[in-house]
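W.,

You were right to be curious about this one. When I first looked at the sequence I had no strong expectations either way, so I just let the prediction run and decided to look at it fresh. Below is the sequence, 253 residues in total, followed by the output.
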Amino acid sequence: RAATTNDDICADIIELQGELINVMAEVAARPGGKPSKIKVPEVVPAQVDRLEQRLDHYLAEQFPQTGFVRPGISMAASALDLARSTVRRAERFLVNLNRAEPVNPVLIKYVNRLSDLLYVMARVDEQRTIEQAVKQGFEKAALTPDPSPSRRGESRQEVNPMSLTLKDCDRMIEAGMKRAAEIGVPMVLAVVNDSGNPVELRRMDDALEVSVTLAPHKAYTAATVRMPTHELAELSQPGQPLFGIDVNMPKLT
């Protein structure tokens, strides 16, 4: 919990640490063994319900997962992923133990839901870390003057999001197709508004199938981060402020 800057994640970790003391006591207590002077509390359904409520809380914020996760974006997420691996191993031990002697079924379900919660908490901590890095990067860029005469004052221009008409899109698409024909590369051309929402998509004959998916994602990325995708690619390399943004945020390409 010392590694996260998120109050809700920190509070949930503290709550779980206290709960796990009793969980470990129940696991250690042998049914039918020597009577204990202290009553060992058992995990109850209400505790599982609380885990599921916290899971829903974080799932509502988590971006949809489109591929395998590569952990390590944040220290807290790395620790949570490690904790989740330990809990998954404990779950397997409990399942095996249940074959030899009866184990509280609610306890097994609790451990299962705990591993799910730790996984989602890790993803949300990563996501928030990336969002904060993006915000800081934009704030830094806004404070850095652009010496290029062609772009001076460009960021200060007010743009009406409804000003992009279909005629404008057609003109841009036609210009793109003309350039593609000049260089001999069939393309898929996409136009989005300033929010990244698609306005027009056109596929040239013989354009690669993958470009039908890739082109809208490229356009969405350029529109929402307000920079060309090749510049974002440089900032997302290891050691750069936006490292991992293209992996952990959907549609950014």
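Here's what jumped out at me. The longest strand covers residues 198-203. And, maybe more interesting for your project: The radius of gyration is 26 Å.

Coffee later to discuss?

I.
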